Amino acid sequence: MNGVNVKDVSVAFGALKVIDGLSLDIAEGEFIVLLGPSGCGKSTLLNAIAGLLDVEEGKILIGGRNVTWEEPKDRSIAMVFQSYALYPRMSVRQNMSFGLKMAKTPRADIETRVTRAAEMLQITHLLDRRPDQLSGGQRQRVAIGRALVRDAAVFLFDEPLSNLDAQLRNELRLEIKRLHMELGSTTMIYVTHDQIEAMTLADRIAVMKDREIQQLGAPDELYHRPANLFVAGFVGSPKMNFLEGRIAAGASGLMFENDTVSLSLPDDVCAAPPAPGQAVTLGVRPEHIALDGGTWDGFRVDIVEPLGADALVWARRDRTSIQLRVTTDEPVKVGTPVALAPDPRRANLFDTETGRRL
Amino acid sequence: MTTIATTEEPTAPARRRRRMPLAAAIALVPAAIIVAVVYVGCMIWTVRLSFTSSRLLPNLDFVGFSQYERLLSNTRFLTSVENIVLFGVLFIAACLVFGFLMAVFIDQRIRGEALFRTIFLYPYSMSFIVTGLVWQWVLNPTLGVEDTLHKLGLTFIDVDWAVNRDTVVYALVLAAVWHGAGLVMAILLAGLRGVDADLWKAARVDGIPTWRVYTSIVLPLLGPMIVTAVVLLAISVARLYDLVVAMTGGGPGIASDVPAKFVMDHLFERSNIGLATSAATMMLITVAIVLAPWVYARYVRPQVPR
Amino acid sequence: MSLPPPDPEGRRPKTVTAGRVGVYAFLVISAAFFLIPLWVMLMTSLKPMEEIRLGNIFSLPKLWTIDPWISAWSGACTGLECHGISVGFMNSVQILIPSVILSIAIGAVTGYALSFWRVKGANVMFGCLLLGAFIPYQVFIYPLVRLFAATGLYNSLLCVVVVHVIFGLPLMTLLFRNFYQGIPIDLFKAARVDGGSFWSIFLNVILPMSAPIIIVATILQVTGIWNDFLFGVAFAGRENLPMTVQLNNIVNSMQGERRYNVDMAATLLTALVPLAVYFLSGRWFVRGIAAGAVKG
Predict the structure, then answer these.
(1) Does position C251 have pLDDT exceeding 90, yes or no?
(2) How many distinct structural domains can be found in chain C?
(3) Cβ-nearest to C113 among B18, B28, B117
(4) C43 and C190 share a domain?
(5) What per-residue confidence (pLDDT) applies to B6?
(6) Is B106 on the interface with C (CB under 8 A)?
(7) A261 exposed, middle or buried (CB, 10 Å; 0-12, 13-18, 19+)?
(8) pLDDT on residue B299
(9) B255, B239, B304, B215: which is closest to B76 by C-alpha?
(10) Of A280, A270, A262, nearest in space to A342 by CA
């Protein structure tokens, strides 16, 4: 029983409510990512779960136990921070064992746990060094190690990779994923603003904006069926193309149109078929549009960004600019006229007014 | 011509000597003159005078170390050295401990933080003369705190520290701590505020008691600030003069004399330039021994070209 | 305290711990230690002498009077002259203004030249200057007296001003140099590429960015120069004594009966300028300490 339940939790800084009545249930062993732009409340939620912030209302259960008023150290959690937060002037070994020593853990037990954690993270050779003698990646490994020795039910990560350069970030991301698989029943809650981290690590992602969870679901679900325009735009890189328009009246079946383009859609794109004439936004991911052979003609290739395996192409017609991800061996020439071919089955329709998925 | 030039190895452009920026050099002239004439010139002059027999007027004879011999058998000088050592150690230690405690306690998310900060630091803005005169009055044996306490029936408490030759240095320390402890508080509080908030969170998750975080984690981080505070306090110890003049006048007798006052008195009142400059040279040597390595390590060595 | 409810919800109940009480107790007692002298000073200065002889040093005056303040300002005696401390106030103002302006100007230009321009020997000079900051003033005083006497400057206000500029130079230079080291060198390079000269870059690019450090330097110099005693004693001469020296002469003069209320009024008057700077400048004062200290 290592699940986490957040029930109707509100957090306030003075008069300002930062989180208002938020609920979230996390199953044992689940890897959940809180994803959102800065200021969306994701770190606040994490800190409330950790007990580093007092909640104003509601309760928090960890492993079925109500820990709302417990001190962080009694919540069976471990935490990893963006700035590593290693204790300076202490060796790696001391860093990892300090908390256990404070909890009066027997010395032999401390020794075993530190050794085991160090082996898991391949930092055994660093045990006698001090943090200022380590690189950023090594420091974050040590910080993870310090969390590991606590044998916690829940791991909390607060943007742990944001201070690292791109290559190290990929490496440690893999390490964290491996760790989660090895630990099995340990629940992990991970805060990030990086959607690639979220997609690669999570069992489920909670996309947050304006202090609320916009969508909670598996990475695939978020990617293919985003609940609203925000999620659609935030998840996925390069960004989804959005085209404002309306539902065509009088056509047979579902039909999107605006002044530039139109697209006939299968009925199952929408849960509830919208009325003809309703203002809608069509969303198509760059990888779901073929460069040529379609019905969206009059476009010309505007800019090409080769990425090696594929290329990003911007096609423009008048003021409409659409981005495509193209896998091709032949170089795309700027200025080539193209007839874009979006895949209607992969299209998303949103209500322009509310931003919600139709 | 051109064909020949191109077939030959291109000659390295003659290494142009970088022209000294004239305006910049001129701008540094005032500072250079001050350094040369005052900081170097006057210092050498003083040292030179300490080897002469000058009394009211300077002469340039050479009497070897006889002024120093006289100095080291001069009771007043020896007392002043003893006093400054005692004062310095107690003053610096008390300021550090008291200042650190104030900084830590202010850092506990208290109400009225700004008010406490303002109160703790305001004496530092005032002169040592003001400080000395206030404490002279507060510790006045006939009408000050002692009198008040005695009138309240607390006759067993004596607060005659400033006029008692055994305690007068402690009275100076008290007044100086009142003046300077806030400085240490301000420096260390800035240091505490600079501690990474994540570090505190990590310690809380690890269940480390607050006092233990301060002693094991925060205090080592404050090292550089503590050094700075010690240097500043040490400078004011070496310069200690105004406070003594205002508060005790060096008395009772010579019981609270200090080297700076010894020098000034022998220069201007007792007309013994030779002895005064030899005492000043002793001060110079002491300070140089204590501070030269620190200045070297901090400023002269790390000359990273920008 | 009753047991916590079986299912805690919402805000953790606040408890007043002994530690919390201790924190406030310590702070209040410390505050009292710092405030008592100010309180005593103020109360004493508002009482007649008879009350001082009888009463308790902490009590409020029974008979409030501002005579001691008037007397301290315009009537208190140093030796045979009885013009009060106002004379010293005027002298201090006349010393203060040119000293502050000059020392900051020279410090700023020196710091600028040291930070952005490579002048041969500049670092050696800077090193000497810094070392000079630590050397007790007693080492320099006698030769300086002789120098000033030889130039006829001795015992004048100008003489004190020059001394303040000399001994303010290390701190001012350090302050400005540290501040200018924080300005990206690329900015200076861009100005060079645009054809700026030494002075035009200073006046058009660097100086406009220097407002914060000029404020800090002004605070440091105003309080430092106002509070000076040593240079006033050694260089000003009998006619030009600054306020601190005159205050000390009034209070510690051996002639006549001590009038403690006048003494305290005079002391407060002398402290007024730095106290005003302190209270008005607020956080800038602390920044001054930090700029001069933490980096220095």
Answers:
(1) no
(2) 2
(3) B28
(4) no
(5) 42
(6) yes
(7) buried
(8) 60
(9) B255
(10) A262
Q: Specify the length of chain A in residues.
A: 358
State how far the Cα of A205 lies from the Cα of A276, in Å rounded to an integer: 34
Instruction: Judge whether C77 lies within some domain.
Output: no
Residue of A nearest to B202 (CA): A85
Q: Are residues C42 and C118 in the same domain?
A: no
Q: Per residue in C18-37, pLDDT tens?
A: 888 999 999 999 999 999 99
What is the spatial distance between Cα C232 and Cα C216, in angstroms, rounded to a whole number? 24
Question: What are the φ and ψ backbone dihedral angles of A69, each rounded to 5 degrees?
Answer: -105, 10
Q: What is the CATH number of the domain that holds B169?
A: 1.10.3720.10
Supply the pLDDT for residue C254: 65
Would an 8 Å CB–CB cutoff place A99 in contact with chain B?
A: yes
Q: Is the peptide bond before A238 cis (omega within 30 degrees of 0)?
A: yes
Sign of CA dihedral B165, B171, B173, B176: negative
Asked whether residue B36 is assigned to any structural domain, the reply reads no
CB contact under 8 A, C11 and A59: no
Shared domain for C24 and C138, answered yes or no, is no
Contact B241, B258 (CB under 8 A): yes
Nearest CA in chain B to C132: B39
* Cα gap B54→B95, rounded to integer Å: 40
Q: Is the pLDDT of residue B300 over 70?
A: no
Report the amino acid identity of residue A329. D
User: At which residue do the structure tokens 């030269």 appear?
Assistant: B292
In order along chain A (358 residues), what is the average pLDDT of each group of 10 residues? 89 87 92 92 92 91 90 92 91 93 92 93 93 91 93 93 90 92 92 93 93 92 93 91 88 84 86 84 93 88 89 91 86 89 91 90
For B112-252, where are the alpha helices, taking DSSP H only? 113-125, 128-138, 145-151, 168-193, 197-205, 210-212, 219-221, 223-238, 242-247
Are C151 and C260 in a shared domain?
yes
- Together in a domain, C196 and C274: yes
Q: Do C28 and C122 fall within a single domain? A: no
The answer to whether residue B4 sits within a structural domain is: no
Residue appearing with tokens 């013994």: B272
Both C240 and C176 in one domain: the answer is yes
In a domain, C75, yes or no: no
Closest CA in chain C for residue A21: C10
With respect to residue C80, please indicate whether it lies within any of the assigned structural domains: no
Under an 8 A CB cutoff, do C7 and A66 touch? yes
Q: How many CA atoms lie within 13 A of A167 on its CB side?
A: 0
B213 has a chain C CB within 8 A of its CB: no
pLDDT band per the 50, 70, 90 thresholds, residue B1:
very low
Cβ contact C248:B245 at 8 Å: yes
Structure ipTM: 0.90
Quote the percentage of chain C above a pLDDT of 70. Answer: 94
Neighbours of B1 (CB within 10 A): 5
Structural domain including B224 reads 76-300
Q: Is residue B84 a part of any domain in this protein?
A: yes
Range of the domain at C1: 1-65
Q: Is the pLDDT of residue B100 over 70?
A: yes
Asked if A146's CB is within 8 angstroms of B204's CB, the reply is no
Side chain identity at residue B140, one-letter code:
N
CATH of residue C139: 1.10.3720.10
Q: Is the pTM of this model over 0.95?
A: no
Q: Examine residue B18 and state whether it is found in any structural domain, yes or no.
A: no
**C186: in domain:** yes
DSSP string, A30-91: -EEEEE--TTSSHHHHHHHHHTSS--SEEEEEETTEE-TTS-GGGTTEEEE-TT--PPTTS-
Q: Which residue has the higher pLDDT, B303 or A77?
A: A77
pLDDT band at B141 (very low <50, low <70, confident <90, very high): confident
Contact A59 C13 (CB under 8 A): no
If asked whether residues C204 and C257 sit together in one domain, one would say yes
Domain count within chain B: 1
Query: β-strand A279-284 against A241-247: which pairing, if any?
Result: antiparallel
